[in-house]
Amino acid sequence: MMRRIARIILALGAAAGLLTATAGIASAAPTKFSVAAVHAGGAGATAVSATGNISWSASLRTVTLSNVKVFMKGGECTYVQFFGYQGTTPMDSTPLYPAEPYRCPSSDAVYNLGTISLTTDRPGGINHMIAEAHDVSHYLIGWTNCEVADSVCYGGQY
């Protein structure tokens, strides 16, 4: 009898641990993103950047980017674009932002894009979002990758 009780307690403990671990993964998703294309290998002036908040639906079928702001350096031709992926498979993408003819401002400009959604009907949903910032004038691309299983986004430039 005591062995049965011990087994039940162990099973309940394992189940509680699994629930706690699962809840931790879901809450670990990044909540903010930023991306930039920067001159001189990252040491110079920012040509274009985008920042905002990111949230994931429980089903992962929708990734919502909110309070999205884009900075563009005057005299540069630039744009940003957002992509939703499941593994290496593209699920959704946005048009280029900002829309023409605003991609080559004569002076520094900030555009408020508001809320952007990436969606899919595919089971498993979108498990990572990639944001790209393109400096067309200097052939630079800054990128950031936000994965639902990570607590922060990571990125770079090429």
Rg, please?
21 Å
By secondary-structure content and strand pairing, the structural class works out as alpha+beta
Note the total helix count: 1
Task: Sum up the overall morphology in one term.
Answer: globular
Compute the number of strand runs: 9
Name the poorly predicted regions: 5-26
Largest sheet: 5 strands, antiparallel
Q: N- to C-terminal separation?
A: 65 Å
Strand order of the largest sheet: 5-4-7-8-9
Strand content: over 45%
Following the backbone from N to C, one meets helices and strands in this order, namely HEEEEEEEEE
- The chain-level mean pLDDT equals 86
- Helicity, in percent? 10-25%
Keywords summarizing the entry:
alpha+beta; globular; 4-stranded antiparallel sheet; 5-stranded antiparallel sheet; 16% helix
Describe this structure in words.
Mean pLDDT is 86; it is low at 5-26. The protein contains 1 helix and 9 strands; from the N terminus they run αβββββββββ. The relative contact order is 0.22. It has one helix at 2-27; strands at 32-38, 46-56, 62-72, 78-86, 89-93, 109-119, 128-135, 140-147, 154-157. The protein is globular, with a radius of gyration of 21 Å. Strands 5-4-7-8-9 form a 5-stranded antiparallel beta sheet, with no helix packed on it.
